[in-house]
Amino acid sequence: MVENSELARQTRHYLAVRERLARPGDAAGRSARIKELEGQLADLASDNEAKGRRIARLEADLADAGARLLAQARILLGGRDTGASNEDGGDRAPIEEIVAAVLEDFPGVSWDDIISVRRERRLVKPRHACMRAVYERRRDLSLAGIGRIFHRDHTTVLAVVNDGGAGSGTAS
């Protein structure tokens, strides 16, 4: 008897589950809920993308500001030492003067453009020319120091001075 009542209970349970799964109104409710969740997911993805773009802009602005601060500190420090002689043969001219002299050949390009993190084609050649000129005239500065001024890695400066018209840097 106990076995029959257990079998009857399992059968009733099976039929109830089957009815819930096969109910047509439930499938429509599920698809509506799925569409609602997909809409929420799309909204969250677009919000996330917008926030990512905002973060990238803020990081670029922060990098520009940091590079300007470093460059201004170098200019101020370089301005104090203009009369001093350098044992490496450099003239210790302020970075600002060196860059200004180079930028005369590149109208429309400013100091802010040179130290920015932008990679526009019109800025690459003047930026490299400025790096090369600073490297040649300020031998007291390391590649890393020049890289910090221009907000670039020291390997970028090394590639510029090795690749450019200035040769490998052996000439003064």
Automatic annotation (TrEMBL):
Coiled-coil residue spans: 34-61
Domain Chromosomal replication initiator DnaA C-terminal: from-to ranges: 94-164
GO biological processes: DNA replication initiation; regulation of DNA replication
A Pfam short name: Bac_DnaA_C
A molecular function (GO) term: sequence-specific DNA binding
SMART domains with a match to the protein in the record: Bac_DnaA_C (SM00760)
UniProt keyword annotations, A-Z: Coiled coil
Gene3D superfamilies reported for this sequence: 1.10.1750.10
UniProt cross-references to InterPro entries, sorted A to Z: DnaA_C (IPR013159), Trp_repressor/repl_initiator (IPR010921)
Name of the featured protein: Chromosomal replication initiator DnaA C-terminal domain-containing protein
Native source organism of the sequence: Rhizobium meliloti (strain 1021) (Ensifer meliloti)
